[in-house]
Amino acid sequence: MGGSQSALNFGAGPAKLPREVLQEVQGEFLSYKNSGMSLIEMSHRGKEYSKINTDAQAIIRELLDVPNNYKVLFMQGGGCGAFAAVALNLLNRTGTADYAVTGTWSGKAAKEATKYGDVKLVFPKADKPGSIPDQSEWKLNPNASYLYYCDNETVDGVEFHYIPESNGVPLVCDMSSSIMTKKIDISKFGCIIAGAQKNIGPAGVVVVIIREDLLGDPMKCCPSVFDFTHIAKENSVHNTPATFSVYVMERVLQWIKRNGGVSAMENQAKEKSSLLYDTMVKSHGFYTCPIDENVRSRMNVPFRIGGGDEKLEELFLVKAEEYNMHQLKGHRSVGGIRASLYNAVTLDDVKSLIKFMEGFQKEHGPK
Ligand SMILES: *Cc1c(COP(=O)(O)O)cnc(C)c1O
């Protein structure tokens, strides 16, 4: 199976990227813009990469309508590096920060931040993620340096369908698995972090969007490579950036623009995920999603089969591979199945998955 044929890739990250972009990159891999050199062989201070750096920042600003008083930074260290950097750069202001823990990644971010200051959870951490307490139940500290949350919990399949109210405290958001999948009002945020490898590029680069007035107060111990103020001053070329990753990301962002921009991605995300959730409803309990309906993710759809029958789930994964459908295994911490439906996953891909699920139920479900 597979070979040169494109696989149906439902991976959670690194994840499917538009075939068209991969071909474009392949076409100029050995000789970037007829230079006789690959981009990955070129200096990060040369004119070719400088243009990529500038273009990538510009298209992010355009696609997300980023106001002028925000900086767009490219950093390394992934999502995990970025949420550590959030604490290192922003926690100094008051020494305490609020965290809304709705799943795996916000949980890890909160834990990381305790190394650098006082961390308060705005609601108790649930044993099993699957819901988000109503905002009226959140205990917000008006003295917090920031309020942190994760827009889409990639592992658990829990997504915010609104922007929380932080009452004037800077709002910080991890959008690693949802950036460029919905329209957002950037001016509501103090800082947004997003690893590229889910919706907008290969692993290796993380995008940071930060309001300028929040710069200038990093902790003394903050490494320069994680220092937002310093990276902003150096225009994201303080040291060698992940040049290839930024380059491919820029091409993916151009692809998003060509295909209708963020609102087109948003419509498509809604359609794809609704079809899949509806399939579960129609399965009469054969496929079940453990997540509250009002916080279900449009990006990562976790489900169980036969009430959590691990043998059946194992079989489902084996059969799926036979139909060229890959990376459907749930995260090791939660088990079951997880279908990730990022921007590059097409409606047809999702329809194929649904057809397969219906066939699987016919064959292996209760008769
Ligand atoms: C993948 C992911 C991370 C971690 O990213 P790394 O690049 O592996 O450090 C953090 N937050 C979210 C929401 C993610 O999806």
| CATH architecture descriptor name of the largest domain | 3-Layer(aba) Sandwich
The counted number of beta strands is 14
Radius of gyration: 21 Å
Net shape: globular
CATH fold call of the largest domain? Aspartate Aminotransferase, domain 2
Would you mind describing this structure in some detail?
This protein is of the alpha/beta class and 367 residues long. It has two domains: 22-258, Type I PLP-dependent aspartate aminotransferase-like (Major domain) (Aspartate Aminotransferase, domain 2, 3-Layer(aba) Sandwich), CATH 3.40.640.10; 261-364, Aspartate Aminotransferase, domain 1, CATH 3.90.1150. It contains nine helices and 14 strands. Helix 6 (243-258) packs across helix 7 (261-282). The protein is globular. The model has no long low-confidence stretch (mean pLDDT 96). Bound molecules: pyridoxal-5'-phosphate. Pyridoxal-5'-phosphate binds at residues 13, 78-80, 105, 150, 154, 174, 176-177, 195, 198.
List keywords for this structure.
Aspartate Aminotransferase, domain 1; 14 strands; 367 residues; alpha/beta; binds pyridoxal-5'-phosphate; 7-stranded mixed β-sheet; 2 domains; Aspartate Aminotransferase, domain 2
In short:
With 367 residues, this protein is α/β, with parallel strands linked by helices. The protein contains 9 helices and 14 strands.
Please describe the topology of this protein.
Elements: E1 8-9, H1 19-27, H2 47-64, E2 70-75, H3 78-90, E3 96-99, H4 104-113, E4 118-121, E5 147-150, E6 152-153, E7 158-159, E8 171-174, E9 191-195, E10 206-211, H5 228-233, H6 243-258, H7 261-282, E11 287-288, E12 300-305, H8 310-322, E13 325-326, E14 337-340, H9 347-364
Parallel strand pairs: 1-13, 3-4, 3-5, 5-8, 8-9
Antiparallel strand pairs: 2-10, 6-7, 9-10, 11-12, 12-14
Helix pairs in contact: 1-6, 2-6, 3-4, 6-7, 7-9, 8-9
The protein binds pyridoxal-5'-phosphate.
Pyridoxal-5'-phosphate (PLP) binds at residues 13, 78-80, 105, 150, 154, 174, 176-177, 195, 198.
